[in-house]
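Comment thread on ticket #2218

A.B. wrote:
> Attaching the input chain for the structure job we discussed in standup.
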Amino acid sequence: MSGATIFEVQRRVTETEADIPVHVHVGYMNILFKTEEDAINYFEKQGRSKIVMGYGYDDFFRYVIRKYLNEHLTIEPFDCKDTSEYIRDENGKFSLKMYVPTD
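C.D. wrote:
> Ran it. Output below, let me know if you need it in another format.
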C-alpha cells in the first residue's frame, strides 16, 4: 500500500479565544487513491473547490491530501459507492481496494 493517498478531514472552528479560525481533525476519508493527482481529480469531479497546495475547502471542512500510513479510515467519501473495502488476495492476505477513476 506504499504510496497510496488519502484525505484527512478537518472541521473549521471560528470561535476561538484568539478569534483566529483553526481546523480540528475529524478523521480520514475511507477512500484510497493511487496518486495525489487521482485524489485531486476525484475532489474536483465531485463539484468541490479546486485543491491548492494540498488543501481543498467547502463551507465547513478542509480536506488535506496525505500519504496513507495505515490510518483508520472512518469518514464516508463524497459518494458512498467509492468506499474502500478490504479484499483478500489468493494467498489470504487482506488489503484495501484502491479507487479507480472513471471518465
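A.B. wrote:
> Thanks. Noting for the ticket: The chain has one helix and seven strands.
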